[in-house]
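Issue 218. Parser rejects a valid record. Input:
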Amino acid sequence: MSDQAITTAEVAKVALLARLSLTDDELERFTTQLASILGHAADLALAEVDGLATTAHPLALENVLRADEPRPSLSVEAVLAMAPEVSDGRFQVPPVMGDAP
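Output the parser choked on:
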């Protein structure tokens, strides 16, 4: 086997399975790029991770929002009294989709 992690024939086969039409130049370029990517993946596989806790994010995440607690609010009548136009107990706004009801 060659010192490359992936061969041009393997890239051609994957391209065929993916229904991709590659030129010879693209085939060579993608083979080189994929070999580089696979080399980096191999380097990561050598990393010593025994005893490290698994994480989904590199930083500790905290909820920065306040607790959602019920509290007194304005009444419906008070809010509608401040609206420019009201119809049937709701805000009256201009139509956004023409004359549709």
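Fixed in the parser; the record now loads. The beta strands are 86-87, 90-91.
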